[in-house]
């Protein structure tokens, strides 16, 4: 797999830079996790990702501060993406698709519609993987 050559932390770090997104790798990764499960409480998200909830708190607070997600103020409040959060996910996914396209130097997306679909699928698969341990350790 393409991601096996380097750490997920560095993949997300480069994608954020390429996409012009000013978020750390864990926040980028969390946006995708929240998108997959929203609305979701922090406790439920941590349980599903098999990580301690307190490891997610600083990143979730950062996403709220950057207006990428909202959270209800009730105990066990629900977290969901904002329009800005969804736009950021779209930018990150597009940056990853562009990176994959560069790996296929000389190939033209206009020539092979099926390959474009495959590239999008590969990009979304990597960006939606739940292998959280490395990113959570690096982020906290």
What does this structure look like?
The protein is built from seven helices and three strands; from the N terminus they run ααβααββααα. With 140 residues, the protein is mainly alpha-helical. The protein has one domain (2-135): Orthogonal Bundle (Arc Repressor Mutant, subunit A). A three-stranded antiparallel β-sheet has the order 1-3-2. β2 (69-71) and β3 form a beta hairpin. α1 (8-19) crosses α2 (25-37), α3 (42-49) crosses α4 (53-65) and α5 (83-103) crosses α6 (113-127). The two termini are 26 Å apart.
Which helices and strands, and how do they pair?
Layout lengths: L7 H12 L5 H13 L2 E2 H8 L3 H13 L3 E3 L6 E4 L1 H21 L9 H15 L5 H7 L1
Antiparallel strand pairs: 1-3, 2-3
Helix pairs in contact: 1-2, 1-5, 2-4, 2-5, 3-4, 5-6
């Amino acid at each position: 797999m393409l991601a096996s050559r380097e750490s997920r932390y560095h993949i997300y770090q480069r994608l954020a830079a390429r996409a012009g997104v000013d978020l750390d790798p864990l926040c980028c990764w969390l946006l995708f996790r929240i998108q997959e499960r929203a609305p979701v409480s922090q406790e439920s998200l941590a349980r599903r990702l098999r990580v301690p909830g307190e490891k997610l708190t600083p990143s979730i607070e950062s996403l709220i501060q950057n207006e990428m997600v909202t959270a209800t103020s009730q105990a066990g409040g629900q977290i969901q993406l904002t329009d800005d959060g969804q736009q950021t996910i779209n930018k990150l996914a597009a940056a990853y698709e562009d990176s994959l396209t560069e790996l296929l130097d000389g190939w033209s997306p206009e020539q092979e519609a099926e390959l474009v679909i495959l590239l999008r699928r590969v990009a979304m698969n990597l960006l939606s993987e739940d292998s959280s341990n490395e990113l959570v350790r690096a982020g906290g």
